[in-house]
């Protein structure tokens, strides 16, 4: 068994330095196998990756039900995070964002039932509802803490101004937003505010939805059901452009004696002790590869080389299609 990995803090919550994003085990990235996914989750816990991230919207509840199989026997080993707020109908169509107090209370109860647990360690608002004051939503979330259903609160893709307003109502332990070598928007304003307010940062898609690993060269490398085929950064013309960034990452990674994926994660971990990446995978070998990033130390020279590469290499395409970009709180 590998040595257990280091730990970090998200506000008052302690978690493994790298978590496991579970979304792709149920939806968005093509067909998946439940037995192998459960084997991977158990392996993650065996090696000390205890921070598991899901949401009620992933597979329309299927992802939470998947985790329930492990939670039945290993609940005490798991720091469990899930989310509410993105609403879909029974055929998967996105219906909008709901941050109303009565909705989130019902959503929390439904998540608890699917997960088969009495409490959620970290409960996020998945997207900020522009039609409901954040004070009302966080106030309702705080009542879930008082009721013992939730231990810590989080937001996802929230602006700096929203974070400030939310933190006045109840302590926010974590902000989850996209952050990687090709998505660095949060560095300008959001990360500084998180640090000012002692809010930890959970970086989702830290490997650029797999692109930064160097394994994806064209849309044909993705299954026909893969959501990334709709993502602007994976459009053929943009992929060709973005391969320049991947090539630069691969060169620096080789000089450090690690893979591109390990370098991308190590770079994130070097951006601050309050940052916890949550890469997703369905393969134990990839999980083990990712975990090794916690043991990589990058020199000041390497970090400077990386900064120079990032400043000279642009990224083509937005993070999401236009409709989903419109749902990000700014």
**CATH architect. name:** Alpha-Beta Barrel
Q: Would you give the CATH topology?
A: TIM Barrel
Distance from N terminus to C terminus (CA atoms, Å) equals 44 Å
Q: What structural class results from the helix and strand content?
A: alpha/beta
Approximate strand percentage: 15-25%
Number of strands: 12
* Total of domains: 1
Mean pLDDT score: 95
Order of helices and strands: EEEHEHEEEHEHEHEHEHHEHHH
Biggest sheet strand line-up: 3-4-5-8-9-10-11-12
Strand count, sense and barrel status of the largest sheet are: 8 strands, parallel
| Poorly predicted spans | none
Q: How large is the radius of gyration?
A: 19 Å
CATH superfamily: NADP-dependent oxidoreductase domain
CATH top level?
Alpha Beta
Task: Note down, in words, how this protein is organized.
By secondary structure, this protein is of the alpha/beta class. It has a single domain, classed as NADP-dependent oxidoreductase domain (TIM Barrel). 38% of the residues lie in helices and 16% in strands. It is built from 11 helices and 12 strands. The strands form 3 sheets. The chain has an 8-stranded parallel beta sheet with strand order 3-4-5-8-9-10-11-12. A two-stranded antiparallel sheet has the order 1-2. The protein has a two-stranded antiparallel sheet with strand order 6-7. Strand 10, helix 6 and strand 11 form a beta-alpha-beta unit. Helix 3 packs across helix 4 and helix 4 crosses helix 5. The relative contact order is 0.14.
